[in-house]
Structures are given as C-alpha cells and as structure tokens.
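sry for the spam today, last one i promise. struct tokens for design, 668 residues
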C-alpha cells in the first residue's frame, strides 16, 4: 500500500530497493542485515528521469541479492552457480506519465492495475525481459544478466571453481544467472614421473611420500578445488625433491561427472657435490684492502638426497682457510636426516630425526676489546661433538624440537695453542695474560652434555617478496651435570618478531611489495654455571648493528629491542628497498656475574644504541649508521667485505671484516 500511495504522488516517485515481501525498514534489516537496508530516494518520474538519476549515481540499480548457490548439473564435471533476484514488473500502456516523463493530460488517474505496473523497479526492464528502460537483457539475448553474473564470478572463484561461461534461465517472476565451472568429484589421483625430455620414467620417490603432502580437499571423494591444487604444489615444492611439479585435472571417462587429477613430477638429481673457493680481504696497515693470504680457502660439500625414495638425506662439508694444508683449522659437519619417524603412512604424526657430527671454529666475541683500548689478541673456540634431535610438526605454522648435545670445547690463541685465559695489551705494549678464564674447568678444554629444546611459532608469509606476519621462538638448554666440573645450568632465550602491513598490496607477479614496519625483541638469560664461551654477547649484526661482535659486552642476561621501517621504491625502473632502523641492547647489569667479568676487563660499556638508514638495490646494499660515530658500509654481491670505514676500531681489533650478512636478516 505504501508503494501505491507513493505512485499517486506524480510526477515524483519514491524508488525503494527492498527484498521480496520486505515491508518497512525493520523488516528489510531483518532480511538483509542491520544497517544495510537501502534508503528511499526521490527521483523524477518517467524513464528519462530514471536514466539521468542512474548516471548521476542517485538510484540503486538492483535489489539486495540472495546468496550464490552451488550445485552439480549435467553429465560432465561441472558446477552450477545460481543467483536469483526479483524481476521488475513490466510497464505497459497508460501509467499516468506522458511523453518525456510529464504527467498525463488532465491529470487523470490510471486504473489500479496500470498503477501497479507503473511501480518503477530499480533493476529496470519489464516482466518479459524486453522493451523497458532497465538494464536487464532482452528476449533472445545471450549471456547471463550482469546483475547476476557479476556476483557469481566473484563468489565462485573464491570457492576454488574455475568459471567458464554464464547463461540466463527464464522463469515467470525470477531471473537466475548460472555460471558453469570445472568441478565435480575427484575419483582418483594419478602420478607420473618424467625425465628432462618429458619421457615417462620410473620414479625413485615412493608414492606415500607424495600423498602425505596432498591436502584433504585433493583426495578422492572431494570436489575439485583450484585452491587445494595451489596448496599441493607449494607443499610438494617444499620437499625439494622435484625440479618441477604440475597438477592437471581431466574428466573421468569411466564415471560420469568425475575428475581425475594428474600429478606430473620431474625429480631432481639425488647426488651432488661442489667446491666453493674463498679468499678473504682485510684492511692493511695503511688502510688499503689486501688479501689476507694467497693460500686458497674454501668449502668442499656433498649431498645425497631421497635415500630409498623416503626423503632421507645425508650431507657433509669440509671447510678450511687453507685447502692446501687443511690440518690447522679443518672444520667439518656431517648430517643425516630421517623424516617420517613414525612411518611414512602414519599421517597423524610428523616427526623427523636428525643427527650431525660437527667440528666448528669461531672467533669468540667475549674476549674482544672495547673501543677505548687497543686490540686484544683473539681467542678461537673449537667445538667438536654430536647432536641428535627430533622435530615434531605440531601445526603447519608451529614445530617442537628436542634433543641432546655432547661436545668438547677448546680455547685456542692465534698460534693454535690451547689458551686458558684472555689477554690484553697494556699502554706500554706489554701483554697482560691475567684475563678472564676461557673455559669452565680452567684448563682450556671442557666437556659438557645438555638437553636442548625449542618451540617455534611462525605465522609469516611472503607478499610480493616482503615478509608479513609474526614469528616467536623460545629455546631452553638444560645442563645435565655431566662433564668438566659437572656443569649444571639453565639457559633460556625468547625472540619475538612482528612484521606489520603499512599499505596493503595485491599479490601477484610484478606487483610492488608493501611497506612494512618490523618490530623485534629478544630476551636471554642463564641460571647456574656459565662458562665464558656461552655468555651472551652484545653487539654485532645479529645483536645491535653498528657495533662489532661483542663490542658492547658479554652478559648473563640481556635485552635487545629493534624496529625497522622498510619502504619499496623504484630506482632506474627496478625495485629497491629503503629502510631505516633503531636498535638498543642492554646487559641488565649482569655482566659482573660472568666469571672474570670480561666486560669490565676489556673496558666495554655493557649497553648501546644505534640508528641509521640503508638501501637494498639488486645485489648491492649500502648502509649509513651511527653507533658512537657515523659510519657507512657498502656490500656488493655475495662479498661481505667492508669497502669503507677501514678505521673502524672493531676492524682493527679483529683483523678482519665485519660480517654484515645478518644486518637485516636478524629481524627478517
């Protein structure tokens, strides 16, 4: 009745877009949703006025829709997406409106039947699909109406169905849009191994290894879904067993409406080996860059993947600074990985056993002089031992690792001799050897055993090359009281990183990465016995950048915070990343609790801050930062050498370059 009363008030008509049988705003909200009922808008009467109002954006074009319905139809693997909406009544004959939208002559009121037909519907058109001023297709037109086809094309792909074409279905008072997409029930999954030439071969990988990585939506009995196909390809690529993976659907000839998923796999070479030579560039006495030694150093490595077709692997590496005579500083690492510890066909648990036998040598950041004193003789820490652990995947984003570590630690000086205490150079040039002890036993050699466990929650993802999300890692090392002087301790660390979207970008190739704000915090502490080589160091690319390794101190407890702003820019037609950072590290007053107090002995501050800016452009990284004074560094390609600022005190002290590999990787 309200609509009839509005029609009588010619020449203006109140245009209402409402659901079927919805009278009044409260009933519209109950059907459509709170706050979503379309308000009335006064429009000039007549077809011309309606068209002009639509061009100005003052008139709604169609009703609130009903949800898209998906159903299977026909004899092939197709899905039907249906969307219904109310057909507008046909305007025919006398409607009280003259030519051009003017009122009828004499102001005579039309009959009630004609007034009902004259109710203007926001979708336009008339009851039989032709001859009106609306936007619905006329009789005989092909293709689904835009009002119904557009929502279907938006909703159906989100459900993983590929849309092919649309058509309109005629009913007396309803319009329906049907879009056909390739779907249907999956009847079986076929696997095919191919060589480099595309010929079918017998694969080495066992089928259960592949089936474990397939999502549940891609198994027989489920509707074919393109989203599950993309996920399966990512999971199969993560195995690192195949150079290429393709998943293609095809109709099942034996079952009407069925779909067969073909998985084509190109296996990678199971065995590989390589040699990576290395020469170190260091600043000379006059500040010029020179080779540390003409003797070639490097790494020899090998790897055997997919042993017995069960994704087991054996890898090893040998490294030395002098490959011609590797006895002085030979480092090695042999690792065996055994996935599917509970059986390859046991999908309920996913545990991996890993063990490695190692011998490493690293420069100790604990015995490093502060910026206000001369360089101290370096102390090298050798670790030889065995580590075995089990990693259990709790969820796709979290994992839990636990195991045992047995190792022997030896402290050595520059001449590769066992060293029991740290040393420093006095102002008169004399060498003082009464520094902090290098080992817990005081002999220069320690043996220890401890249990190590950590849990990782990683919710990060890559958006056009930028990391977005959050990551949390908690690790505990518990001493067993076995070894030199029966050390018993508990070391714990908590690291939290958050990557925040600043401007959302659409995902896709060629799309620019979003601007990101990275927040990072780390706390570490130790209760019980603490050898100097296990003290937490402050300063360096993985702690507070702008300082050398351990330049701020060595502590029992520490707190680090950092923030970095990353903004993508375009330089010479290529994407580059400009970033600014602020970092701070503090020993929380715990440096004095380390045996021998190496922070005070080497005149270090125990805390410090730094800030700066930088740019990543291709294989080049340039950074300008301030710690105690302004410095800048330039990194080219895979070289990690400092090409400027050769007067930096940490370079003089260590006699080598600052390894800046983790400048941004610390919080990325």
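last one done:
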């Amino acid at each position: 009745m309200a609509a009839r009363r509005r029609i009588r008030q010619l020449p203006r008509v109140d245009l209402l877009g409402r659901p079927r049988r919805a009278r009044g705003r409260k009933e519209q909200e109950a059907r459509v949703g709170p706050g979503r009922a379309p308000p009335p808008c006064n429009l000039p009467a007549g077809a011309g006025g309606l068209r002009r109002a639509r061009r100005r954006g003052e008139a709604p074009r169609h009703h609130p829709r009903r949800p898209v319905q998906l159903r299977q139809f026909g004899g092939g693997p197709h899905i039907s997406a249906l969307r219904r909406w109310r057909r507008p009544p046909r305007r025919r004959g006398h409607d009280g409106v003259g030519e051009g939208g003017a009122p009828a002559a004499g102001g005579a009121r039309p009959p009630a039947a004609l007034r009902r037909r004259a109710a203007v519907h926001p979708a336009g058109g008339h009851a039989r699909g032709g001859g009106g001023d609306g936007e619905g297709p006329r009789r005989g037109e092909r293709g689904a109406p835009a009002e119904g086809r557009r929502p279907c094309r938006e909703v159906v792909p989100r459900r993983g169905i590929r849309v092919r074409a649309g058509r309109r279905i005629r009913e007396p008072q309803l319009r329906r849009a049907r879009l056909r997409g390739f779907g249907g029930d999956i009847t079986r999954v076929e696997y095919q191994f191919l060589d480099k030439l595309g010929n079918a071969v017998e694969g080495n990988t066992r089928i259960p290894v592949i089936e474990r990585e397939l999502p549940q939506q891609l198994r027989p009995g489920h509707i074919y879904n393109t989203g599950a196909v993309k996920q399966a390809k990512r999971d199969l690529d993560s195995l690192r067993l195949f150079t290429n993976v393709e998943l293609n659907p095809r109709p099942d000839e034996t079952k009407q409406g069925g779909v067969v998923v073909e998985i084509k796999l190109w296996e990678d070479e199971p065995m590989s080996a390589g040699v990576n030579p290395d020469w170190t560039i260091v600043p000379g006495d006059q500040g010029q860059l020179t080779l540390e030694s003409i003797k070639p150093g490097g790494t020899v490595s090998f790897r055997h993947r997919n042993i017995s077709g069960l994704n087991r692997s054996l890898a090893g590496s040998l490294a030395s600074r002098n490959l011609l005579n590797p006895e002085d500083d030979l480092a090695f690492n042999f690792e065996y990985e055994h996935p599917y510890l509970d059986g390859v066909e046991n999908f309920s648990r996913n545990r991996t056993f890993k063990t490695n036998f190692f011998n490493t040598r690293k420069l100790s950041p604990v015995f490093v002089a502060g910026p206000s004193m001369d360089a101290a003789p370096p102390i090298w820490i050798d670790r030889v031992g065995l580590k075995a652990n089990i990693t259990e995947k709790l969820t796709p984003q979290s994992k839990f690792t636990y195991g045992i570590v047995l190792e022997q630690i030896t402290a050595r000086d520059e001449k590769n001799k066992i060293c029991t205490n740290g040393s420093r150079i006095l102002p008169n040039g004399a060498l003082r050897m009464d520094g902090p002890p290098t080992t817990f036993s005081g002999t220069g050699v320690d043996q220890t055993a401890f249990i190590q466990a950590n849990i990782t929650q990683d919710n990060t993802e890559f958006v056009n090359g930028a990391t977005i999300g959050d990551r949390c890692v908690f690790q505990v090392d518990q001493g067993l009281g076995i070894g030199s002087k029966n050390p018993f301790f508990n070391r714990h660390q908590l690291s939290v990183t958050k990557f925040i979207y600043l401007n959302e970008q659409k995902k896709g190739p060629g799309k620019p990465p979003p601007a990101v704000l990275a927040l990072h915090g780390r706390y570490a502490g130790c209760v019980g016995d603490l050898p100097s080589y296990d003290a937490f160091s402050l300063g360096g690319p993985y702690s507070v950048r702008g300082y050398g390794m351990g330049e701020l101190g060595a502590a029992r407890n520490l707190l680090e915070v950092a923030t970095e702003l990353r903004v993508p820019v375009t330089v010479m037609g290529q994407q580059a990343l400009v970033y600014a950072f602020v970092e701070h590290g503090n020993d929380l007053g715990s440096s004095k609790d380390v045996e021998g107090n190496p922070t005070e002995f080497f005149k270090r501050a125990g805390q410090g801050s730094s800030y700066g800016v930088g740019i990543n452009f291709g294989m080049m990284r340039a950074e300008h930062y301030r710690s105690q004074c302004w410095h800048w560094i330039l990194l080219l390609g895979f070289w990690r050498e400092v090409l400027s600022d050769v007067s930096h005190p940490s370079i003089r002290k260590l006699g080598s370059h600052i390894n800046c590999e983790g400048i941004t990787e610390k919080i990325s």
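The two ends are 65 Å apart (CA to CA). ok im logging off now
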